[in-house]
C-alpha cells in the first residue's frame, strides 16, 4: 500500500469551525477537546511532512544529535 503525504488543512479548518460552533452553543467541554484535536492535527501533519512516501523520515543531509554514525 502506497503512503502519500497529503495536506490535512481541510480537516484542521473543519475542526476549527466545529470548535467555534461548540463554543457559541454552550458546549465548552467539546470546544476544549476540539482545540486539543486541532493542536494534535497540526503536530501530526508536521510529522507527516517530514516523511517520504514510504513513511520514512526524510534526510536533509545533516546528522542529528542521536546519529551514531560519526
Structure description:
- With 70 residues, this protein is mostly helical.
- The protein has a domain at 9-47.
- It has helices spanning 9-24, 28-49.
- The radius of gyration is 17 Å and the shape is elongated.
- The two termini are 34 Å apart.
- The relative contact order is 0.16.
- The mean pLDDT is 79.
Order of helices and strands: HH
Number of distinct helices: 2
Shape: elongated
Major sheet attributes: none
The fraction of residues in strands falls at under 5%
Quaternary structure annotation: single chain
Radius of gyration: 17 Å
- Mean pLDDT figure: 79
Low-confidence parts lasting 5 or more residues at pLDDT below 50? none
Which percent bin holds the helix content?
40-55%
Task: Give the N-terminus to C-terminus distance in angstroms.
Answer: 34 Å
Overall number of strands: 0
Class by alpha and beta content:
mainly alpha
Amino acid at each position: 500500500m502506497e503512503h502519500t503525504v497529503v495536506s490535512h488543512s481541510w480537516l484542521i479548518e473543519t475542526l476549527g469551525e466545529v470548535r467555534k460552533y461548540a463554543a457559541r452553543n454552550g458546549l465548552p467541554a467539546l470546544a476544549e477537546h476540539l482545540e486539543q484535536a486541532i493542536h494534535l492535527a497540526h503536530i501530526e501533519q508536521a510529522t507527516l511532512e517530514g516523511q517520504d512516501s514510504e513513511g520514512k523520515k526524510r534526510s536533509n543531509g545533516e546528522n542529528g544529535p542521536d546519529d551514531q554514525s560519526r
